[in-house]
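Hi all, long-time lurker, first post. I run a small reading group and we've been trying to get comfortable going from sequence to structure in the token notation. Rather than ask abstract questions, I figured I'd post a concrete chain and ask someone more experienced to write out its structure so we can walk through it together at our next meeting. Sequence below, copied exactly:
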Amino acid sequence: MATGTASTLRSPGLLPALNTRHHRAALGVFAFVVVAHWAEHIAQAVQVYVLGWPLPEARGVLGLPFPWLVTSEWMHYGYALLMLAGLLMLRRGFTGRARTWWNVALGIQVWHHFEHLLLLVQATTGDNLLGRPVPTSIIQLLVPRMELHLFYNTLVTIPMVVAMILHRRPTTAERAAMRCSCAPRPAARPREAMA
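-- Answer (accepted) --
Happy to help. Here is the structure in token form:
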């Protein structure tokens, strides 16, 4: 005798659903969030390097009306964690070459997340790395923070986008292994004219 109801037998759970029937929609939402965040970093760089704004005033687009978005280590860490979770949760839906590129993005985000965790711990405890006056990440010892985080977000976004493009254009073997409907069906070949 079955112990589950019919609805629980049909519902495989959140992660399987996100990597099968809802993979395309989940990727669309995730990509929008990632690209919007990346655009904020680009806007901040434009404000500094093109418009000549001083760094404290260059807060991206959303940071202008909401300055705490730029100054809150909790918000930055929360986004890094959200991105790491999204890359992990949507990973199983990828196959072949797309999975390889997605894994590259995930690996970079693991490091990016670690750097934000280090910044958050410093902001929370007040004990900054190497006695610096502000929370400082490891690579930030070599590269200024604004440029570094634009670079990190670029490094994560590019392989993620490559993975999504390859996922939509799978090889025959990759298509056979896919459990989602992200890739359009191949066009049917017209029959050759009979002689």
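A couple of things your group might point at:
The mean pLDDT is 90.
The CA atoms of residues 73 and 120 lie 5 Å apart.
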